[in-house]
Amino acid sequence: MRIVCVGYRDWALNIYDQLQREFPEYTFLMQLSKKDFSEIQIEQFKPDLILFYGWSDIIASKLIESGKCLMLHPSPLPKYRGGSPIQNQIINGDIHSAVTIFLMDNGIDTGPIARQKYLSLEGTLKQIFQRIEFIGFDLTRDIFTHGLNVTDQNSEDATHCRRRSPEQSEITKEELEKCSAEYLHNKIRMLADPYPNAFIQTADGKKLCLVTAKVTEL
User: What is the torsional sign of CA 175, 178, 181, 187?
Assistant: First the structure.
């Protein structure tokens, strides 16, 4: 098989590295940054599958309509289609999620599902990414071995989320006055590095970044 791996996020690159080691008999084309991405190079490579794990830029319809593009989305699709799925689930208080690998179409996270497996959103963001790596590799290995076997999503069950902006990382005075400790704890832990950290604006015009927190009783 000929496999193209496109991505730039650390967890996606770690999955790709494991796949190369697990399947030395396959031929891989690695495009591991946005500047390395080349549709022409992919077309010339004539791949059997193209993995867009952790990718957020627009992809040409010509590639998508080839029926070869797979995306990994850390949510139980069709729930939480769209941007910042991990952050949006955590801030909503969800702890039960999934890693979903689906065959891309021209919609946003709407393509038929190839594999889906439970993902816990408890713990630190680092621990969540480690789980995504482990599950994502395991599911992709199964696809390489047994084929896609896709199932259409039920759009009637779909929910949607929007990509979060850095400005939304602020913990406002209103949130401190009205929100629970658990909500604020979730906001802080969902915005650990490499995301724009949760912060409080201080009287001297600076940002006090909050990278970790814990909840205790008074």
Answer: negative
Provide the whole-model pTM. Answer: 0.93
Backbone dihedral region for residue 101 (phi beyond 0: left; psi -120 to 50: alpha; all else: beta) = beta
Integer Cα distance of 187 and 129 in angstroms: 17
Residues found in the chain: 218
Taking only the tens place, the pLDDT of each residue in 113-170 is 999 999 999 999 999 999 999 999 999 999 999 999 999 999 999 999 999 999 999 9
Characterize the bridge pairing of strands 2-6 and 49-52.
parallel
Q: Give the tokens for residue 205.
A: 């015009």
Per-residue pLDDT band at 57 (split at 50, 70, 90)? confident
Structure tokens, 28: 């891989």
**Which CA distances in Å does 137 have to 20, 119, 155, 160, 215?**
11, 13, 27, 26, 33
Closest CA to 99 of 82, 86, 108, 84: 86
User: How far is the C-alpha of 139 from the C-alpha of 119, rounded, in Å?
Assistant: 12
Continuous segment of H or E residues that includes residue 160: strand 160-161
